[in-house]
Amino acid sequence: AKSQGKARYEVFDRRMHAAAVRRLQIETDLRRAVANGELRLAYQPVVRLDTGRIVGFEALVRWEHPEHGTILPGDFIPVAEETGQIVQIGRWVMDEACRVLAGWQLSAPRGDAPLTMAVNVSANQFLQTDIVDQVDQCLRKHGLPPGSVMLEITESLLIDKAEVVAETLRALRALGVQLHLDDFGTGYSSLAYLERFPIDVVKIDRSFVHGMQDEPRRARFVAGIAAFARSLGVGVVAEGVDSPAQPALLRDLGCQYAQGYLFARPLPAEDAERLLGADCIA
Ligand code: C2E
Ligand code: CA
Ligand code: CA
Ligand code: CA
């Protein structure tokens, strides 16, 4: 039994070692990723449920690694957050997303509200940069109407340093930038944050949307969030919409916007721009 236990530890050690090596490799390679132009953005449309029209996009970062191919954000953003590389990556993402949006707004002017772009900002990135100044400069540089840029933050940002964070959020809002609370419903005190912070829109996490058409309890949960948000004047986006049964159901439950594989996967800029030509995609 003793030798068996030892063998098990060795397997565990080797796995830990492999994970550590992989992490170190990501960290080293990531250092040149921005400089070498290895990052790119994919764009997923956000659809208005009553008209079926695209109102904007969410920018999602990808890393085209020269040897390993496409790496998804879940595999490098956490590392970048720990090492501080997220600051440089975040700066690139913000600039690129704004540059692309400005081009789309010019080529596809709309009578109603301007096309929007949502950018994810992780907690360390938010806390380690002068985000207000960065966003302000980006808007000016690309000549964007401030209301067309949205920042997606998560509850983890709101847990600590609440005073400083609330002040920064108010400054961003004063610029005209909209604030979205991502993965809503998955944290510990989602409802309390809505009361305490200036949030414009909540994005209902896809774990509540997935399969909701067959799970009455899950649908009630979505309905509750939507009703609560509406009573506070906060908008609602449903994430992870992947079934044809969901758009009508979500609309009836009070969600205004939706995003998910049913409409489109995150797309390269050219494909996203082509989608914009369609009158209605839902
Ligand atoms: P998120 O902000 O919740 O982004 C939504 C994720 O759900 C994306 O994964 C998207 O591809 C995926 N998704 C969209 N529709 C569906 C669907 O119908 N079904 C399913 N199963 N999944 C769907 P992705 O691109 O891998 O991004 C993962 C996370 O990485 C994001 O979660 C976000 O937290 C983070 N992230 C992405 N880009 C950036 C960035 O530029 N900066 C920062 N700080 N974080 C980012
Ligand atoms: Ca997001
Ligand atoms: Ca999300
Ligand atoms: Ca997420």
Explain this structure.
The protein is of the alpha/beta class and 282 residues long. Helix content is 50%, strand content 18%. It has twelve helices and nine strands. The chain has helices spanning 2-33, 77-83, 86-107, 123-128, 131-142, 155-159, 162-174, 190-196, 206-209, 216-231, 246-253, 269-276, and strands at residues 39-48, 54-65, 69-71, 116-120, 149-153, 178-184, 201-204, 235-238, 257-258. It has an eight-stranded mixed barrel, surrounded by five helices. Strand 6, helix 8 (190-196) and strand 7 (201-204) form a beta-alpha-beta unit. Helix 3 runs parallel beside helix 5. The protein is globular, with a radius of gyration of 20 Å. The N and C termini lie far apart (60 Å). The structure holds ligand C2E and calcium ion (3 copies). Residues 44, 60-61, 72-74, 77, 93, 120-122, 125, 152, 182-183, 206, 240-242, 260-261, 266 line the site of ligand C2E.
Main features:
single chain; 282 residues; alpha/beta; 9 strands; binds ligand C2E; binds calcium ion; Diguanylate cyclase (GGDEF)-like protein/PAS domain S-box-containing protein
List the helices and strands and how they pair.
Elements: H1 2-33, E1 39-48, E2 54-65, E3 69-71, H2 77-83, H3 86-107, E4 116-120, H4 123-128, H5 131-142, E5 149-153, H6 155-159, H7 162-174, E6 178-184, H8 190-196, E7 201-204, H9 206-209, H10 216-231, E8 235-238, H11 246-253, E9 257-258, H12 269-276
Helix pairs in contact: 3-5
The site of one calcium ion (CA) has 5 residues, from strand 6.
